[in-house]
Amino acid sequence: MLPDKLKSMLRGPRAGEQAATPAAPSRSLFTGKTPSGEAVVAERSSRGLDEFFKYIRDASGLTILDLGPATQANINFITNLGHRLYTADFLQVLKDTFGMDDTVDQSNPGRIEYFLKQALDYPEGHFDGVLIWDALEYLAPALLTAVVERLHYIVRPKSYMLAFFHSDDKQDAVPYYTFRIQGIATLQVAMQGRRRPAELFNNRSLEKLFGKFDSVKFFLTKERLREVIVKA
Q1: Which residues, at least 6 apart from 90, have a Cβ–Cβ distance to it below 8 Å?
Q2: Is 71 a domain residue?
Q3: 165: β partners
Q4: Which residues neighbour 29 within 8 Å (Cβ) at sequence distance 6 or greater?
Q5: Tens of pLDDT, residues 150-200
Q6: Is 78 left (phi over 0), alpha (psi -120 to 50) or beta?
Q7: What is the CATH number of the domain that holds 168?
């Protein structure tokens, strides 16, 4: 049975408590294993992540949503900046709700509502930022539209979101990752598997997807990932 909530609220250190020091960023590209045994694809710089933090680094007490699986690196980094972090393992909820079979119908209204209840059940204007990572490109159109509408509902005006989309239209299946924040502009990227994207997006289609938001900004990486900053 799917748990009622696959999300947790993690707060920064209380007054008088010593905060853990976030991991120092590395400039090297490498392969190997993380302590949990996952294959590490790379540790690399991210202009999108740098842009995301540029908008929040001078503030404190903000509320951030991470749609990846909870990682200690992200928890430490965000809370050490003085912000509150919620996590929701978006792709795990997707798997539990619809399965990992690419042929599964994601258009059933009842299943869509159930998915939104499990993954994005938050009040209006609750978040100042969302780390979406690569979660959206595995959603079929009906589910994707519902998720983007819900994201628009739960973020505050002038908040920011960071999302990644593969840009190579020659691939039948693309990797999906866990992203660990190592520094303001540095990510450790661990591959979790491969899955067929529901759709591959170009700049124009992404602008249309986030049409209700104020602006969309793009960065293309060497890995042919399109990093997208969305402003509400």
Answers
A1: 67, 68, 119, 132, 135
A2: yes
A3: 226
A4: 42, 43, 44
A5: 999 999 999 999 999 987 666 677 778 899 999 999 999 888 878 777 888
A6: alpha
A7: 3.40.50.150
* Within-domain flag for 23: no
pLDDT in tens, 70-107: 999 999 999 999 999 999 999 899 989 988 666 578 98
Domain count, the chain: 1
Does the global pTM surpass 0.90? no
Task: Examine residue 108 and state whether it is found in any structural domain, yes or no.
Answer: yes
23 and 73 Cβ atoms separated by less than 8 Å: yes
Q: Could you tell me the residue range of the domain that residue 222 belongs to?
A: 30-231
Q: Let me know if 92 is exposed, middle or buried by CB neighbors in 10 A (0-12, 13-18, 19+).
A: middle
